[in-house]
Amino acid sequence: MKIAKDAAVSFNYTLTDETGEVLDSSQGREPLTYLHGHDQIIPGLERQLEGLETGAKVELDVPAAEAYGEHRSDLLYEVERSRFDDEVDLEVGNQVMAQGASEPVVLTINAVSDDTVVLDANHPLAGKDLNFAVEVTEVREATEEELAHGHVHDGSHHH
Fold first, then answer.
1. DSSP output for 5-26
2. Where residue 28 sits, what CATH number does that domain have?
3. I need a labelling partner for 46 at 20 to 30 A (CA). Which of 12, 111, 142, 155 fits?
4. Distance between alpha carbon 104 and the CA centroid of its chain, in Å?
């Protein structure tokens, strides 16, 4: 069976950036499993997996615009340093949680001065072209229950 809308797909992957640095990998873990065509993985990866079959091994390049988007300067926020509790480690690169409009958001500390902290609400991989080494381990038709629940079940799933 080929990967197409409503297929239950499992794959192993290694994700690297344009310099070849490994950013993430399924090595030593279960394969990533998702419902194809349901926006559960980044768009450029999902689009390029379409039509592949179990056993396929491919190298896929996903531009930033089809991954986590371009880095947006309007998602940088300058906050008074005094608004942070003393126990917060205000180091560039650290992440902090804040309450968004409807749910908590993770912000990355972009810059720190004596008076202000610049927080970045972009995804950490925004603006990066991504490279995936993928091995498709399973492609099958999703069950009616999986489609109704919006995710693949692994046999131990209970609602």
1. TTEEEEEEEEEE-TT--EEEE-
2. 3.10.50.40
3. 155
4. 17
CATH number assigned to the domain comprising residue 88: 2.40.10.330
Note the pLDDT of residue 101. 86
What is the torsional sign of CA 127, 84, 77, 106?
Answer: positive
The whole-angstrom separation of Cα 103 and Cα 42 is 21
pLDDT of residue 159: 53
Parent domain of 16? 7-68+126-149
Would you say 104 and 111 are in contact if contact means Cβ atoms under 8 Å apart? no
DSSP state of 29: S
* Residue given tokens 């492609």 in the structure block: 139
* pTM strictly above 0.90: no
Give yes or no: residues 132 and 64 share one domain. yes
Residues 64 and 131 in one domain: yes
For residues 92 and 51, give the distance between their C-alpha atoms in angstroms, rounded to a whole number. Answer: 42
Ranges in the chain, pLDDT < 50: 156-157
Residues 6 or more apart in contact with residue 21 via CB below 8 angstroms? none
First-to-last C-alpha distance (Å) of the chain: 29
